[in-house]
Every structure is written in structure tokens, then in C-alpha cells.
Amino acid sequence: MTEAILDPLPWLIVLPLAWASLAFLLGEGRGGRLAIAGLAAQLALALLLAVQIMAQGARVHTVGGWGAPLGIDLLADGLAAAMLLLTQAVALPLAVYARAYFSAVHQTHFWPLAGFLLAALNALFLSADLFNLYVTLELLSLAAVGLVALGGKTAQAAAALRYLLVSLTASGAYLMGVALIYGVYGSVSLATLAPLVGGDPPLAVWLAAGLMLVGLLAKTALLPFHFWLPPAHGGAAAPVSALLSALVVKASFYMVLRLSLGVFSPLAEMAAWSLGLLGAAAILWGSWRALRAIRIKMLVAWSTVAQLGYLFLIFPLLTADGPALQAGVMQAVAHGLAKAAMFAAAGVLMLSTGRDNLEGLAGVANRAPVTLFAFSLAGITLMGLPPSGGFLAKWLLIEAALAQGHWPWVVVIISGGLLAAAYVFKVLCQAFLLAPRSAHFNRVPRAMEWTAFLLAAASALLGLRGVELLELLAVG
Amino acid sequence: MTPGLIYALTGVALFALGLAGVILLAQALRRILAFNLMGSGAFLVLVGLAQRDGGVDPAPHAMVLTGIVVAVASTALALALARRLAAGGHGDD
Amino acid sequence: MTANEALPLGVLASSLIPGLIIFALPEARVGLRTALNLFGAFAKLVLVGVLLAGVAAGEDYGFRHSVLPGLDLVFKADALALLFGALSTLLWLFTTLYAIGYLEGSPHRSRFFGFFSLCVTATMGIAMAGNLFTFFVFYELLTLATFPLVVHRGTPQAMRGGMVYLAYTLGGGAVLLTGIVWLHGLTGSADFAHGGYLAVLGGEHAMQLQMIFLLLIAGVGVKAAIVPLHGWLPQAMVAPAPVSALLHAVAVVKAGAFGVVRVVYEVYGVEFAQSLDLLTPLALAAAVTIVWGSLRALAQEDLKKRLAFSTVSQVSYIILGVALFGPLGTVGGLVHLVHQGVMKITLFFCAGNYAETLGIHKIGELDGAGRRMPLTTVAFTVAALGMMGAPATAGFISKWHLGLGALEAGMDWAVWVLIASSLLNAAYFLPILHRVWFTPRARAWPAERIPARGRLETGWLLLLPTLATAAMILVAGLLAGADWGPLAWAKRITVWEYR
Q: What is the mean pLDDT of residues B30-49?
């Protein structure tokens, strides 16, 4: 019976690898159309997978029929399917955007790197063991660092190197954790480990959990490990920033979430409040820095630091099927769409004005209205205003916090939203100002404006279709 | 104390040394080397602890091999970036 | 989907869809844009008319869409919704006409009319919201849709005004959201209901319910400009005149006041609210706002600013009426919801006419304007007399019922508030009337932009809406007993709320 249906799991990894390799062979700057076609197929596969999982429940795919422990298992449940769907849904419009963007800005190897990045991401979401997670995470970082360094400017190389070193150290810590776990339990499979780790494990397991957690937090850029993110995301080319902020940081968050719900759930309670408090601090500090930013992409990058904080607020509130988990995933999805849109819009605004600071935006409201609209819609999600997905996330989060009597959480969530409003409207106000007479605006390809808009509209309207996403998530 | 445990403890020491290096050192090249030390430490722990029961467990060997490949690739990328940085970049406007 | 489900959505779509098309229109397509605007406005009028007739005949109109398990987007076109909805629809039509005339030849009109349409869509959403969640969704949408209108001129001054507006309204929205989620946690999903739905919770949650009430009222109170949350309203005066009309009469402050009505009557229920001792503090806040707004209005030299503070004061009449426990107070509050809108929009149209035609912004420059612009000045006079509560105007009907309501509720002090406020109204409107009619003109007009042509003292698109709304003030005052008038609807709603 299983042969009768097309299994999307391996294809979601093979396809991007295939078009990435082909793009590499085609040579510098080529392969955009190939990537778009591949991504369209991937999106269809991700949708198919979501439908299959809704109908039949979670399932495991053994690659090449080998099976664990020597072979590799792929596991697809509701959470993985939701993240896969987000990834393809963000990547497809971004590919259209990037194709137009790189017709205006010179690039060398965007398409192969982007393909490898997506393959690593998809593989990560489908991984069923700790070591596989390590490999995919590492490949993801390598591709991401390559993308940051793409422009070849000194600042970009410096940001990329800093990003790489943080990333390597972090995955080193994670790998050490994996080694310790293997030493204690003789397995790295999530399914095998889950019943073995009890409430009172040996010291080595505590150490392992701590190392893995710190490593993953550093990759997610949770305060105080956020320092590498603004230069890397703010300095890269616009489509790259969009991919990184929307998707790449979510990968390590996904791992934290998956591990603390699964294998390490007996230990997770210990760290929950620290994670929550760091998240709260990240919201306030990141928003504050975004508010103070004078370059538009730095503003958006700092906003990512703040928005990632929301993802960690859920940990103290986490229960098996309570609203906190739903809030976290809703926030991850909404922010993914919105941040991709926002970076894409920022890229258009920068190309249009030829400047990268906020001051240069005066008058842009009349010259690039579609883009500004996209920026605003994405901003609505970040502020958590209805009917966006960000709003539903905040609603669920506040509800969970109130149900458990955590009033300070409500204050943090609400003030984070207001701070987001402050920095989003700082940009909009500047854009609505009358343009100085000397201002000159460049023409920007329509495809860029409308893909940014599409992403933003998706994030803003996600709130109307929250039920489906949560139903998918409920498939364990 | 079994040889396996000695390997593992050495691995932990190497890892700690490497970690301290990555965090404390300023020069890019030294930090890249320190990262390699970290990685070697982790691999040693994997291999060392797997020999606990006397027999040889192939799974960690496969993992270490994969890990080495990843580490080599990362080091290459880091070195390339460090070189570009030292050369002052080429695409500055 | 049945017709009774589709009709409320149609009311929303009749302004949303033209609005979205207008966004995409090039600036030069004046004809098509005007046609779309008017088509939307008339279509909405017809739809609301159908709904009114249906509700009068006992039909139920509603639509429900689930966004999360236990969280529904609910639209319900009941009598209360339609009281507000019909007002907004009618005034939107006139404001659109006025704006077409007012903005003739100015830049960025596609953007303007696009957001204008979104704004009225949000207002209709607020009117027809069937639960607090839906109310909040459109309440925030209204904030977002009005912001580009407030900063439309693109000057640094406009930006400052816009930022103040946002700071207040988004802050209010955040407070409102906290209250709504808290309440949702207590009751689960619940729709607005005649007589409220909280009475079943009884006294054991009294403390929490009082806190939530404070949050909800503070949240909607920002838009309703209850002192001390009124600071944005005078600042937002930098907007063009049609936007001021929209803010003060059709949409924003009205949405706030309407929110107070829904919270008191259909969430808490007026009797339960009274038993929690919530109504007296609300009445006091309204009374303070009424007097404070009037006092501040006295001190303003700028015509639009004086009108803005007058709005602060007048909107709280509605809230006072809501807070007076008893059917007569309720009737007074509800009917004033309509009357204040009609009167204030007339005043802002007039102020816009003076500014656009003769360049008059200050009260000191109005000398002799009645001779140059008699029709506008007649309209202004009618509306100003209405605000004071002169017999034969709509304002008299409101104040009469409010006064009776105060006596019925045993709050005699509120009658003194009404009297004091009426005296203050007179004190800041009568000098203006004296100036325009009886002080001869000594100097030239500050900036005469539109020359008089025969009977037409200014552009006909500016004049027609002004005269129409002025006529409505008189109709509402003279034919108050009519079966289809706002007073009759207010009475009908009141019967349901006290049943």
C-alpha cells in the first residue's frame, strides 16, 4: 500500500540537492529558473506531505531500506510537516525575488548555495536522530555562511567569519553532547532515547543536555548569543538576509523545541525559566536596538533578535498539547513569512533609493507603494495586530500565560508588540514624508515588489486560517 | 581505568582547551585551529566511550568519519574567509 | 452560504473591494475612481437599508468563521449594529462626496481614497462585530487604516500628529487586548448578547471582572477620547478636513463610544454592571470629560481645535447616557451616538469650507463670513445650536433624554453637568455665531481660493454634503417621533437590553 503513494520525504531532500548541483555546473549566476521550477515542485511535495500526514498520521522513512542504527531514518510528523511547508512557501517567492534582484546586483554562487541550504533545512526537519541533526545543522551553517560572504565585501567577509566561528563552536558543543549521550545510552535515535532518559539521569547526560542546549541557543541567536546576527543578516544581500532570518535561525529553534518536547523532556523544566527570561530580555533589547538603528536592514535584523525572543517565551508555559506549543509554531511560521517579506521589501527600498539608511526613505511611499504596503503588512505581523498570524501567536501566548497566572509575561508580550509598532512606524513615517527635491529613485523590477507583497500578505492573512495549521501540528 | 575511558577523558580535555581557545583568542587562524581541537576532542569521546564493552561498535566510527568530513569542509571555508578578510576583500565600492 | 449570512459580508465588501481596486488605480483615473467610490457608498447604503428592513421584520443576520479552536470571527447585524452602521454609511457617502471636492487636483488621491474605503470597512466591521475578538480585529484595523490619512499631507507636523495618534491608539489597543484575552480565559468563546453574558459568573469573580472592565473601557476609551486619554484628538487635527470628519463623526471616536456601549450592555449587561458598581465611576469619568472638554474648547483660537475639544466633550454624552442606569439614559446615549455624528460632521464640513474657500483657520478671522458664505454659515449655525441643545434640533432630543435619564437613575448631579456643559457650549459657540453674522468685515480674506459664482459661494461638492447633514439635524429634531428615526431605533434597542 505504501508503494502506491508517492513518498515526498526523500524527494524533499534530493530535489534541492539536484538543482543546486546543476546550477553549480551551469556556472556563475545561472540556474535561477531551474531553482524556481525545483522549488515549485518542492512546495507541491510539502503540501502533499501535509495532506498525507493529516490523513494517516506521522511516519518514518528508512533511506535506502537500511534502517537505524547504521542506515538513516527520516521522520515526518505534524511539526516537521509544518516547518517544511513554511520553508518551501518562503523559499519559492524568494527565489522569484532573487532572480530579479541578481539581475540588478552581481552575484556568483547564490543558486547552488541556496539549494544546499534548502536541502540541509529539509533534511534537518526530517531527521530522526541526534547525529543526523548535527550533520544537517552543520551543512546548513556552511551554506548560510557562504551566502553571507557572497558579495565579497570586507564587511561581509568579516560578518561571515564571525558567524562561522560562532556557528562552528556551537555545533562543536552540540557534537560533544551527542558523543556523551552515545557514551551513556549507546544510541542517538530520538525514538530509542526517549524512554531511556529519566528524571534523574547520570551527570554526563546533564552535561550533554547543557552543551547541546547552549550550542543550539548560540545558533538561534538568543540573547546573549545574538551578537553575530545583526551584522550577518543586516550585511548580506537582501534575498540572503530574507532566507537566513526567516528560515535558518528557525532550524535550531526547531531542534530545541523537538528535543525539549521529546528526549530531554524530563530535564526541560530545569531550563524552561532561564530560556523564557532570556527570551523576554531578547524581546526588549532587540526591539530597543531596532528602534535606535539608522540603517534599514540593521533595523530589520535587530527586529529578528527581538522576534526570536517570543519563540522562547513559550518554554515555561509548555504543556503537552496546550496553547504554548501552538503559539510557538504559529509565531515561527508567521515570523518566517513576515521577515522574509520585510527583508525583501527593504531590499527593494534600498535599490529604489540607492541608499541604505532610513533618512533616504523620504518620499518612497509614492514611488514604491506596493513595497511599502508589503513592509507595513509584514510589520503588522511583527506587532501582533490582527488578523495576522503573529496576532494569533500572541493571543495564544497571552492566553497560556494568563491561564498559569504569569502576569509579567503578558506585560512583556504587550510591550514587545508596542516596541515593534514603534520601529515599524518609524520606517513608515519616514517613507510618508515628502521627498526632497534632489531625491532620485531607481526603477525596481516589478517581480521583486510583488513577491515581497505576496509573502507579506500571506503572513498577514495567516491568522484567518490558523485552524488548519494547528490541526497539522496536532499530529504527533 | 579502561583505555576507552582514558581516550574519552583526553577528548574532554582537548574539547575544553579548544573551546577556551575559540572564545579567548583574537586571531582568526588561531581560532580556526582551536575549533579543530574542539572537534578532535569530541571525536575522541565518541570513539573512546564506544569501546566500553571491549567490542567495537561501528556506528560511532561512521559518525566520526562523517564528522571529520564536515570539519574539513568547515575549516576550508573558514580559511578561505580569513584569507579574503586578510586580503581586504575585492568587491568594495 | 445563505443570504442572511452573505449580507453582512456584502456590507463589508461594498467598501473593501472598491478600496482595493482604487489602490491599484493610477493617479490620473479620476473618473473611474470617483465612480468606484460612489458605487461603493451607494451599494452599502442599499445593503444597510435591506438589513434595517429585515431586522425590523425580525430577521437574524450573521456570519461565523473559526480562526482557532474556540475563537471565532463573528458578524451579527442586529439593531445596535445597524444604528451605528447606518449612521456611518450615510455619513460616509457625504464625506466621500465632500472629499472628492476637497481634494480636487491634490496629489496621492488613489492612496487617500483607498485607505478611506478601508477605514469605513473597519468601521462597519466594528459595528457588526458579534464578539469582543471580532471587535478587536476591526478596532485595530481602523487604527492602521486611519494612520495614512492622518499623515496624508506628508509634512513633519503631520508626522508628529500621526505619531501621537498611533501612540495613543495602539497603546489603547494593547490594553484592550489584555482585557479581552483575560475575559476569554474566564468565559471561553462567547458572543455579544442582549443583557450581557457575564451575569452567570456571579459575584465570585467580582474583583477580576472589575479589573477587566477597567482594561476594556480604558482600551476603547482612548478612541472615545475619555479624559485623560483624549490627547491624540486635538493633535490629529493636522489631517485634511474630510479626515477630521471621519475621525470625529463617522469612524474613530464613534468606534470607541460604540465599544463602551457593547461592553456595558452586551458583555457585562447593564444590570450586572450596576451590581458590580461599575456604572457610577464610568458616569463620573464621562462627566469630567464633558466639562473638561468644554473648558478646553473655550480656550482654543483655532477653529478646528475648538471643534476637536468640543468632540471630546460631546462624545462623552454617549458614555454618560450608557452609564446612567435606566432606560431613558440608555435611549439618550444611543440616540446621541447618531446625533453627535451628524452635528459634528456638519461643523467640520463648515470649517473645511471656510478654510478651503477663504483660507480661514482662526476664529478671529471669521468676521463677516456669513455674508460671503451664507449657506455654509447657516449650516454651521444649525449645527452649533444643535450642540448647545436648542429645541427643534437633534441635540435637544439627546439632552432631553439624558436629563430625564439622570433623574430616573437618581444621579441628580448629572443634570447639573448637562446644564453646565450646555452653558459652556453656548459660551464657545455663540461668540463664533456673533462674529460670522454680525461683525462686519474689515480686512481682506486670508487666502481666497474659490471665487463665488452666482449663488454658489464655494464648490458644489463642498456645499451639498454640508447642507444635507445640516438638514438631517433639523429632521432628527423635528421628526423625532418618526417610526424610522434614530430615536425609535434607540428605544427598540433599549427595550431588548433591559428585558
A: 90
